[in-house]
Design goal:
globular, single chain, 3-stranded antiparallel β-sheet, 3-stranded parallel β-sheet
Length: about 180
């Protein structure tokens, strides 16, 4: 987790005072988190969404106790199956794609930038590894933009939506074999 995640929680609440804010995690680092982290979650009324995978399922009892101890709301998401969303070519109707997207609320923070969804945040890895040149959002710098600019960026369709299939193909979670068909449909 980000070393200043407690401060990021404060910023997120300031930007979105009336919204449900969810922090997604696989939970592996939660037992090591300091008290400031837990206090920030509670103060900012932030929900933790714990993604369950085959490698972390044994931690559930320990993590559940940790959440009870700190009075933090917990939502468990079963990540043992997920959708491949990336299309192999560009699509035209990005507004319709965005309107029907269930990942548009899965904002990501990576290296000081906020992204609309996981694909836009980490799509550069696809391009780099498979020598492709698909467009992925550049994100928005959280340190140099106002809360209104960030909000406007997060809640509208982008060119990145042109490579998304929304639901795509459902697959079982597994360790990567580093093949492009693990990304695209």
């Amino acid at each position: 987790m980000h070393p200043n995640i407690d401060i990021l929680c404060d910023v997120a609440r300031k930007i979105c005072p009336d919204k449900i804010i969810t922090l997604n995690t696989n939970g592996l680092l939660l037992p090591k988190m300091k008290n400031e982290f837990w206090q920030s979650l509670k103060k900012n009324n932030i929900l933790i969404r714990l993604s369950i995978y085959p490698y972390n399922i044994k931690l559930i009892p320990e993590l559940t106790n940790l959440f009870r101890k700190n009075s933090i709301r917990l939502n468990i998401w079963d990540g043992r199956k997920f959708y491949l969303r990336k299309a192999k070519c560009y699509q035209d109707d990005i507004e319709n794609i965005w309107q029907n997207c269930d990942a548009k609320i899965c904002h990501q923070i990576y290296k000081g930038k906020l992204y609309t969804c996981p694909t836009s945040a980490y799509g550069f890895l696809y391009n780099k590894y498979f020598n492709k040149d698909f467009y992925f959002d550049d994100g928005i710098d959280i340190y140099s933009h106002t809360s209104n600019e960030i909000y406007d960026f997060l809640f509208k369709a982008s060119k990145n939506c042109a490579t998304c299939l929304n639901k795509g193909r459902l697959i079982n979670w597994q360790l990567s074999k580093f093949k492009s068909d693990e990304w695209d449909v």
